[in-house]
Amino acid sequence: MKFGLIGHPIAHSLSPALFKAGYEGRYPYELIETPDFDKAYRRFIEEYDGINVTAPFKELAFAKADILSDECKAIGATNLLVKTPEGIKAYNSDYLGVRKWLEEVRSSLSSGGGLADTHIKVLVVGLGGAGKAAAEAAGSLGMKVIRMNRTVKDEHTRPLDDFRECFRESDIIIYNIPTSIPALNELNDNDFIPGRAKFILEANYKNPSFVKVMKERIDAAAGAVSYTGGRTWLLYQAITGYEIFTGEKPDLTKMTDVL
Q1: CA distance 73 to 179
Q2: CATH 3.40.50.10860 domain extents, the chain
Q3: Is the previous residue joined to 28 through a cis bond, with omega within 30 degrees of 0?
Q4: Residues with catalytic function
Q5: pLDDT tens for residues 111-167?
């Protein structure tokens, strides 16, 4: 079996190292880096059993699939294609990974804060491919989802101008914008309710901006605010995705060591 990652640019990707660690190098995993989606897709068809898909190809890959998982149908994008006897099947391990993280956070909120799933408020900031996956994952767990984006396309999406208000009322914040927004600098003590836990997940693991702006504020919250970086999301989506590829569970401990 042979696997890989398509996208552009991807030279920085940790995926090959994670895959090698997860399976002790038993299966090859290669980077297929090109700005030409059709060229990358042809290489997948000719040479690989499965591929991960990253920006800017997630929607293009979705359109190529013969079979769509339920989460792909809901999101309209894929980051994982696998050859099957019935055709090319698409999955979304961004969704599967963040759902795994949300399940762990839900346990903390339910036991520590006594919140039922339907009372847990999740603010998803940035509705690109990862943001859409996060919003669908939170909704699938029965949580109340607040969608926020730079571009507001419908009445279900809040503008970035509402960030402080939504941050204050949310239990979980999933931040998918690759840069810090001005509203982060405007947060003050009134935006952090004493005794109310907040869990923050930032998607960007290459150059996280949210935590740089918020580090002093998070530290000052004295444990009430828990920050999780994008490497954890990457790890969780890799665990679920690689098992779909191979049918075998990867070695979590060795993958964690890579990060």
Answers
A1: 29
A2: 3-91+233-258
A3: no
A4: 58
A5: 655 566 668 999 999 998 889 999 999 999 999 999 999 999 888 999 999 999 999
Assigned fold of 3-91+233-258: Rossmann fold (3.40.50)
Tens digit of each residue's pLDDT (9 = 90 or more) over 91-117: 999 999 999 999 999 988 876 555 666
What is the DSSP pairing of strand 121-125 with strand 225-228? unpaired
Where are the domain boundaries for CATH 3.40.50.720 in the chain? 95-228
pTM (predicted TM-score): 0.89
Tell me, which fold does domain 95-228 have in CATH? Answer: Rossmann fold (3.40.50)
Alpha helices (H) along the chain: 15-23, 37-47, 58-64, 70-75, 93-108, 129-140, 163-169, 183-186, 210-220, 230-246, 252-258
The CA-atom distances, in angstroms, between 87 and each of 13, 190, 214, 224 are 28, 54, 46, 48
